[in-house]
Specification:
The complex is a heterodimer. Chain A is an alpha+beta fold. Chain A is about 65% helix and about 10% strand. Chain A contains 17 helices and nine strands. In chain A, helix 3 runs antiparallel to helix 5, helix 7 packs antiparallel against helix 13 and helix 8 (about 145-165) runs antiparallel to helix 15. The mean pLDDT of chain A is about 85. The chains are: A alpha+beta, B alpha+beta.
Chain lengths: ~425, ~80
C-alpha cells in the first residue's frame, strides 16, 4: 500500500501514544497490587523480567512465516523478518539504550518511593522534549529551527499543565531526580533507539520488534545489576522480592498483560522514531496525557481507581494544557518544506568527495549518486524556504565540483508501507 | 536490489489521475509531486533491470505522461 509518509508517521506516533495511555492505566492497577505498592524497585525488576519473557514469546509468534514474509511484518513492521540475535554493530547502541532505560526506571521508582502522589513531580518529565532538542542540536546535523523550538515549548508547557495535580507534595530531591536522572536518561534512550532503527542489518532496515525485544533484555540485565548492588550495600531484598513476585502466577499474568501491551506501543514508537526526530516523536507522545483520560474514567467506572479530580479549576488548567499540546503538534505537522536538488558536476572532481560535502550540509536527508542526466539527486528537509536558501543553497554554491543544480520543491508525497 | 528515480513530465491537468494509477504499479516505493522542471518523481525499487523496464513501461503507458528520465542510483547515504 502506498500512503502519504506524513500520515503514516502520525498514525504510528499517535497509535503508540494511545496504547501507552492504556498501559498507564494497567500499570497503575498492577503497581497498586500488595507486592508492588510499597516496593516500586521490585515492581521495576518484575516488569522487565516478565517483560523479557513475554516479549520473546510475542516476537517468536510474530516470526511465523506468512505469504513470503512474516506475521510481524504484516501486522507491525514491514522490515521485520524473524527474531534474531543482536548483531555486532548494534551491541554498543543496545547497551547504552538498555542502561539508560534501566536507570530511568530506577529513577522513576526512587521518586515513587519518596513521594506519595508523584504527579506534581512527574509532570516535569515532559521537559524531556527540550532536552532532546538540545541534544539533537549538538549530536545531529539537524539544528532545530525557531518553529521547532516554539512548537516544542508549547507542547512541553501544555503537557505540564495537562498532567499536573495540585494534591501532591513539591519536594526538592524528587524534582532533582527528574531533571538530573529521569529526563537525561529518557532523552539518551530515545536518541539511541532512533540510532538503532536507522541502522541497516544485512542490507535491510533494522526492525522495531527485535530492537524492542533486545532493549527489554538489556534493561532487565542492567536493572538486576543495579538492584543487586543497591540491596548488597543497603541490606535490602528488592531483587529477591521482584523475582519471587514475578513467579507468582497471578502477578505474572498482570505483568505479562502490561508488558505485552507496552511491546506494541514501543514497536510503533520505534518505527515512528525511524521516520522523524526523537524530539518531535516525544512531543507527539505527550498526547498520551489526553488519551489517558478515557482510560482513567473507565478504570474509575470499573472501580479499579478511586480518585479522579473534578475540581473546576483543575479541569480548566488541564483543558488549557490539552489545547496547547494539540496546537504544538499541529504546528509541527504544518511547517516542513521538502525538496529534491538535481545536480550535475564538473569533470575532474571525485564524486565521493562531492558526495561527502553534500552530506555535510544541514537539512540534507538523502544523497544519491545517479547514472543518467544528473550526477546527484539530493533530498532536503527544512522548516522554511528562507532557511533552505541560507543553509542549503549557499553551501551548495561553495562546493567547487558542482557545475549546475536546480531545486524542485516537493508539493505532496506518498510512500510504500 | 536496484533503486532508481524516474523523473516525469505530465500534461497540465492530468497529475491527480496519473498519481492514482502510479500508486497501483508494483515496485514503486515513493511518489512525489514536485514544482520545477519535472512534475513527478517516482522512486522504484526492483530486483533487476528487467523489472525496472517494466516499471518505466507502466509509467509511460499512463495517460498524460509526456516524458520520463530514469536515474539509476549507484550509491546512497541517507538518514533512514
Amino acid at each position: 500500500m502506498i500512503i502519504r509518509k506524513k500520515y503514516l508517521f502520525y498514525i504510528l506516533a499517535i497509535t503508540s501514544s494511545f496504547i501507552a495511555a492504556a498501559v498507564t492505566a494497567i500499570d497503575s492497577y498492577v503497581g497498586g497490587q500488595p507486592a508492588f505498592k510499597y516496593d516500586p524497585w521490585a515492581f521495576a525488576f518484575s516488569l522487565f523480567f516478565v517483560g523479557a519473557i513475554i516479549t520473546m514469546i510475542i516476537t517468536m509468534v510474530l516470526s511465523i512465516p506468512l505469504r513470503g514474509s512474516s506475521l510481524g511484518a504484516k501486522l507491525l513492521d514491514p522490515s521485520f523478518k524473524r527474531i534474531r540475535f543482536v548483531q555486532k554493530k548494534e551491541i554498543k547502541t543496545h547497551l547504552i539504550a538498555g542502561i539508560m532505560n534501566a536507570i530511568n526506571t530506577i529513577g522513576y521508582c526512587a521518586i515513587i518511593s519518596q513521594v506519595q502522589d508523584p504527579s506534581v513531580i512527574l509532570s516535569f518529565s515532559q521537559i524531556v522534549i527540550l532536552y532532546l532538542l538540545l541534544m539533537e542540536s549538538i549530536t545531529d546535523k539537524d539544528v532545530p529551527t525557531l518553529v521547532e523550538v516554539q512548537s516544542s515549548v508549547i507542547v512541553t508547557f501544555g503537557a505540564i499543565l495537562a498532567s499536573i495535580s495540585l494534591t501532591g507534595e513539591f519536594l526538592l530531591v524528587p524534582i532533582l531526580i527528574v531533571f538530573l536522572v529521569v529526563n537525561p536518561t529518557w532523552a539518551i534512550f530515545s536518541i539511541y533507539q532512533r540510532k538503532l532503527k536507522l541502522m541497516k542489518i544485512r542490507n535491510r532496515p533494522n526492525d522495531s520488534l527485535n530492537i524492542r525485544f533486545w532493549n527489554v533484555v538489556f534493561s532487565c540485565l542492567f536493572t538486576a545489576i543495579i538492584l543487586f548492588f543497591y540491596d548488597f550495600f543497603f541490606s535490602q531484598q528488592h531483587l529477591v522480592s521482584g523475582v519471587l513476585s514475578s513467579l507468582d502466577p497471578h502477578y505474572f499474568i498482570l505483568l505479562a498483560a502490561t508488558m505485552g501491551t507496552t511491546f506494541i506501543s514501543y514497536v510503533l514508537y520505534i518505527r515512528a522514531l525511524g521516520m522523524w526526530k526523537a524530539s518531535v516523536n516525544n512531543a507527539i507522545r505527550a498526547s498520551t496525557i489526553i488519551f489517558a483520560i478515557p482510560f482513567s474514567l473507565l478504570m474509575l467506572h470499573l472501580g479499579l481507581l478511586t480518585e479522579f479530580s473534578t475540581d473546576p479549576v483543575m479541569l480548566v488548567i488541564k483543558i488549557m494544557g490539552m489545547i496547547l499540546i494539540v496546537m504544538g503538534i499541529v504546528s509541527f505537522a504544518l511547517t516542513l518544506v521538502k525538496a529534491y536538488i538535481f545536480i550535475t558536476v564538473k569533470p575532474g572532481y571525485r564524486l565521493k568527495d562531492t558526495m561527502n560535502k553534500l552530506w555535510d550540509i544541514r537539512g540534507v536527508s538523502h544523497v544519491t549518486v545517479t547514472g543518467g542526466k544528473y550526477d546527484f539527486i539530493v533530498k532536503v528537509s527544512t522548516r522554511t524556504l528562507l532557511k533552505g536558501y541560507e543553509r542549503i543553497i549557499r553551501r551548495l554554491d561553495e562546493i567547487d565540483g558542482i557545475k549546475k543544480y536546480h531545486w524542485e520543491s516537493v508539493l505532496k508525497d506518498w510512500e510504500k508501507i | 536490489m536496484i533503486s532508481a528515480y524516474i523523473l516525469i513530465m505530465i500534461q497540465p491537468g492530468k497529475t491527480d489521475k496519473a498519481i492514482k494509477e502510479m500508486r497501483r504499479i508494483d515496485n514503486v516505493a515513493k511518489i512525489s509531486i514536485i514544482a520545477g522542471e519535472y512534475d513527478i518523481v517516482v522512486r522504484a525499487q526492483v530486483k533487476n533491470l528487467e523489472e525496472l523496464l517494466a516499471v518505466t513501461d507502466d509509467i509511460q503507458m499512463i495517460e498524460g505522461v509526456t516524458k520520463t528520465t530514469t536515474q539509476i542510483i549507484e550509491k546512497e547515504i541517507s538518514l533512514q
